[in-house]
Amino acid sequence: METQHAFSQLMPPMTDPEWIALESLEEETRHFIFGDTVLLTLKELGFVEPEGGQWRVTEHGHRALSERTFS
Fold first, then answer.
1. Which of 26, 40, 41, 43 is the most exposed place for a label (fewest CB within 10 A)?
2. What is the pLDDT along the chain (71 residues), one digit of tens a residue?
3. Who's near 65: CB < 8 A, 6+ residues apart?
4. What is the phi/psi pair of residue 26, to 5°?
């Protein structure tokens, strides 16, 4: 099985804005341009969670970003 094929089976399909939003949250950007809809989608996928009035990337989210970088 090819790596890309395995990756696509493990990770739900995401749009480019969703990936960019996840990367922005991971980098703790100060100017987050995405709205609540993207955040709620990422939360439903288990990639982010609210914490103390802010959003943080979960371990699952970090793993998804790492796997995407290497695939």
1. 40
2. 344 444 445 566 788 889 999 999 999 887 888 888 999 999 999 999 999 888 999 999 999 998 876 65
3. 22, 23, 26, 57
4. -65, -40
Closest residue by Cα to residue 32 from 62, 13, 61, 56: 56
DSSP per residue over the chain, as a string?
--HHHHHHHHSPP--HHHHHHHHHHHTT-S-----HHHHHHHHHTTSEEEETTEEEE-HHHHHHHHHHHH-
Please tell me the pTM assigned to this model.
0.74
- Domain residue extents for the chain: 3-70
